[in-house]
Amino acid sequence: MRHDVNGEHAKETLSNAEEVVVISVLSRDPEGFDGTKLLDLMMVCGLRYSSAMGVFHRFETESDDSELQFSMLNVVKPGTFPIEKMGEFMTPGITLLMPLPGAIDSSVAFEAMVETAMVVVRHMGGELKDENRSVMTAQTIEFARQRVREFERRHRLQRHMQAR
């Protein structure tokens, strides 16, 4: 697959995260999300598939050593997508995970993650959910945005103190 990426760097970033911001999109259709349509949307949204991990990642740039912005997993365990069988694949939803620290610009990564979730909502009839699977409102998105900013601020301060 053209967009296949080595998932090692992403896996490492996710496993070393101090915090993870989670947004799920659950299908309103009892049949779930269509795999082909989901795959097409993810490619348009700049996500790349990692055959090693079986999930999608979005990085800050196209470079192989670029920092991870967020990952997309299937809500059905083990969380993977059968890339070779996306034509007959259906899922009740997806989960987007943004590790902190992760991207160089966490705020941009967060906005990209929210926009990707909204693309799925708009084009596939989904509903935004938070990490507890409660409905995600504009207010909870703003709360998550503030959490990212606060993490970034603390992280910057920490780096500044270490540089002294």
Automatic annotation (TrEMBL):
Q: Which superkingdom heads the taxonomic lineage of this protein's source?
A: Bacteria
State what protein this is by name. Cell division protein ZipA
Q: Does the keyword Cell membrane apply?
A: yes
Q: Which GO terms describe its cellular component?
A: cell division site; plasma membrane
Alphabetical keyword list: Cell cycle, Cell division, Cell inner membrane, Cell membrane, Membrane, Transmembrane, Transmembrane helix
Tell me, what does this protein do in biology? Essential cell division protein that stabilizes the FtsZ protofilaments by cross-linking them and that serves as a cytoplasmic membrane anchor for the Z ring. Also required for the recruitment to the septal ring of downstream cell division proteins.
The GO annotation for biological process reads: division septum assembly
Cellular compartment(s):
Cell inner membrane
Topologically, how does it sit relative to the membrane?
Answer: Single-pass type I membrane protein
PANTHER family recorded: CELL DIVISION PROTEIN ZIPA
The text of the family note is: Belongs to the ZipA family.
Asked if the record carries the keyword Transmembrane helix, the reply is yes
The record's annotation in SUPFAM superfamilies points to: Cell-division protein ZipA, C-terminal domain (SSF64383)
Where is the ZipA C-terminal FtsZ-binding domain positioned along the sequence? 17-148
